Each structure stands twice: as C-alpha cells, then as structure tokens.
Amino acid sequence: MAILVTIALVTVQLGAVAAPAVAGKPADDLKDIQYKQYFRGKYSEAIAALEKVLSRKDLSAQERLSANEFLAASYVLSGAAERGQEIFLRLQSEAPDYAGPDPSVFREEVVAAYQEARDAYAQSRIRAAPPTEGDRDGAPPALAPAEGGKPIYKQWWLYAGLATAVLVVGALSREQDDDPASRPTGTVDVGVVVR
Fold first, then answer.
1. Count of CB atoms situated within 10 Å of the CB of 179
2. What angle do CA 12, 18, 20 make, to 5 degrees?
3. Fewer Cβ atoms within 10 A, N terminus or C terminus of the chain?
4. Is the pLDDT of residue 183 over 90?
C-alpha cells in the first residue's frame, strides 16, 4: 500500500513539473511579445512567440489580427518578405475590410510589403471574377441585351425618342428663323482699300 501511495505522489509531482505553465491573457502576452521582442529587433524570437500565441484557442478576432500583423511584420523585417506578404494576403482574404498596418507603428518596409500583398490580392480577385454577359458575347456591356432579350439598339423606343428629339430641335430652329426679332438689324460695310 505504501508503494502505491508513493507511486501516486511521484506521478502527481511529475505531472506538475511536466505540465506547461498556464498562459496569461492573450492581450497581455501580445503586449509582452511586442515590447520585449518585436520593438527591440528580436524578430526571430518574436516569430516563434507569435506563432505559439496564434495556436491558442482563446484569442479574440482582434487579437488574432494583431498577432498576425506583428508576425507578418517580423517576417518582413527578418528578411523573409515573401512569407510576410503571404500572411498579409491571408489577412486580406479573411478580413476584406482590413486597412493594413498602421504606418505610425510599423516601419516603411512593412507597409510596402502589405501594399504589394494588397495589390496581389486585388489582382487575384479581378482574375477570379465571373465574366459578364458582354464579356461572353464579345459585345460591349452598353450594348448588352435589355430585359426583353433584344439589344438596346434594336428597341423601338430608342428610335422613337431620337426622332422626337430631332423634330423638336428642328421646330425650335425654324421658329427662331421666322421670328423677325431674332434677325440681325443694321448693315455692315466690308470694304477693301487698294493703294
């Protein structure tokens, strides 16, 4: 019996030693990483710590965004700009309203890497957009079929409207020609003097 109690105590003690330390609040952990590693230029340490924080399940959406932002910045500043841009691309696709890193907090290289990633994301969205009706038929979108199925230039009302406009303009100009008040008065002498 004493042996069983001893084994149980040793097991409990070993479990306590081997158990990972309880992490603090995610926001506090992120602040520690930012101030103790990122802002001191210890980018490889910041990358390892941020990846560990990102594996946590208790992060809020804002904390996850902030951690990814600092992770991307750490990669860019450590010389792995492509990896940082990949993270920015993922951020942009997960949160299309993401405005990018704050230039007052992040260095110019980080902001430039984000802008390149944002441009690449925009290009991928344009390429992935489904073609419109005009693109498929080869016709410009303005001449695409109207609701009735006919193109706009084959609609009767278009030509009726144009004819009405021409008649109104013609009538107004004829009325102006018949009005004596609108005719010029007086004479103009044009002469040439030869010497």
1. 9
2. 115
3. C
4. no
The CATH class that applies to domain 24-128 reads mainly alpha
Residue 75 has pLDDT above 60, yes or no: yes
Q: Is the pLDDT of residue 45 over 90?
A: yes
Please state, in angstroms and rounded to a whole number, the distance separating the CA atoms of residues 180 and 183.
5
Distance, CA of 48 to CA of 36 (rounded, Å): 13
* Angle subtended at Cα 50 by Cα 75 and Cα 88, rounded to the nearest 5 degrees: 45
Beta-carbon contacts of residue 34 (< 8 Å; ≥ 6 apart): 46, 70
Most confident listed range (30-44, 83-97, 124-138, 163-177): 30-44
Residue 91 buriedness (CB in 10 A; 0-12 / 13-18 / 19+): buried
Q: Considering only CA atoms, which of 128, 174, 112 is closest in space to residue 101?
A: 112
Please list the residues that pair with 151 across neighbouring strands: 145
Alpha-carbon dihedral angle through residues 107, 113, 117, 123, given to the nearest 10 degrees: 120
Domain definitions of the chain by residue range: 24-128
pTM metric for this prediction: 0.54
Q: What is the pLDDT of residue 99?
A: 85
